[in-house]
Amino acid sequence: MVETPSSVPHPYWPRDLSIPGYVANDRSMHEILSFLFSVSGLFLLSTWVLTGRKWARDGRGQEFGVARRLAICWFAVCGFIHGVIEGWFSLYYDIIPSDQSFLSQLWKEYSRGDSRYVISDNFTVCMETVTAWFWGPLSLWTVFAFLANKPCRFVLQLIVSLGQLYGAVLYFYTEHRDGYSHSQMGHPLYFWFYFVFLNILWIIIPLVLILDAWRHLQQAQTHTDLAQKEKTN
Fold first, then answer.
1. Cα(151)–Cα(206) distance, integer angstroms
2. pTM of the model
3. In this structure, what is the dihedral angle of CA atoms 87, 134, 128, 205, given to the nearest 10 degrees?
4. What is the pLDDT of residues 151-176, one digit of tens each?
5. Pick from 13-17, 18-22, 226-230: least confident
6. DSSP-derived 3-state class of residue 232
7. Residue 57 Cα distances to 8, 76, 215, angstroms
8. How far apart are CA 207 and CA 164, in angstroms?
9. Bridge-partner residues for 57, per DSSP?
10. What is the C-alpha separation between 192 and 183, in angstroms, rounded?
């Protein structure tokens, strides 16, 4: 029997999903995950070293604390993931199922936790495109703003974190409304690690950073208001 495009076997859910032209990965899961976490770790480590240099100081002229250094490292890793990994998806989403480029294989592996990425789902394409071309560059700008002690640093932190939080909430909510049909519900790797854990980070960490930016911007506005009152008195 000749296999039609619609009947090409694949590992994705729902099992009757049609993915014409699908080609299975020839890279192992370990190769793909090792690349992702190694490069992310390199960005984190490099940024950690930079934030510890003598010239790196906060707005009070003091060395960055551990929490601030970790926050800057987070934005550096986000710059890589948004700009490179998600940037690839935003450009090549329509050929990923049949493409054997390394980053396409990365997306085919991740899609075992969310098959919307191998069917050019409208929401994921739009969401990832905005993430790649807005939050990616802005994440790197945020890193620079903190290292250079720019006045806009907490504004950037707030904007990027709000965008990340909004995208992540919609990501989970749209799949919830679909009944979690694009993943093997309850699978320890594909559902809980790929789909839940790797994405819930973009809810938890941005929430913390939003509150942090809110506090600093509120203090700045209070200081400005007091200075204005002193001028008028």
1. 20
2. 0.91
3. 110
4. 999 999 999 999 999 999 999 999 99
5. 226-230
6. helix
7. 56, 17, 19
8. 9
9. 63
10. 10
